[in-house]
Amino acid sequence: MLLLIDNESALSTAEERFAEWIRWSPAQPGVVLMNVRIPDRGNGTRQLDALIWTPQRCIAVEVKGFHSRQDGVLVVPPNGPWHMADGRPAALHGNGDGHNPLDQVHTNTMTTKNWLEKTTGTRCAVHGLVLVLLLPDQDIPGLDAPRRPPMTDIIIEDFDVFRYYLDRVSDQPIEWTSDRIAPLLDALGLHHLHAADPTALAEAMGEHVAPPPIRER
């Protein structure tokens, strides 16, 4: 996977660990943007923790970390803040009255979808993922989330589950190629992050890249 980070110094601790996960997955085809702003209504923008393109999917990712240790099952109700099985509010960044991680990822997913469709002129499906990363020795043995929005998943820290989440649809039709992604990166002003290697996007997406011609002397 090709990892492109806009202003790495602005990443949170949880986001830095997610970036490490991406660096550990060189064989998984895809392009990952981190700390990126997507054009929103009017002249506004919407900040995304991460945006992933695999050949089959576009995924808006909300990376959440605990700011204090809590153990036990994490409960995701249909409405309101997430909480632990004992009733305590989950000490997650962005989890409180008026919004929760699912609300945030849903808004980011719709913002990304609207921008992609406006930019490409075609219908686009965007999936949502909330990735919850834990503190050292924290024990969250399960997730109680029986009702989730369509096309939205939640993963409690597990690198293997994350890789399976990406790989499980690898046999589906290809939706995204380097030729589709490149102009989107340009529109976001991120061309400089991959311009040094003109074949980087194609290689990251698992596409065949012809070797450079041999020049005869």
UniProtKB/TrEMBL annotation:
InterPro entries to which the protein is assigned, alphabetical: NERD
Pfam family, one: NERD
Domain of life the protein comes from: Bacteria
Domain NERD stretches: 13-131
Protein name in the entry: NERD domain-containing protein
Organism from which the protein derives: Nocardia aurantia
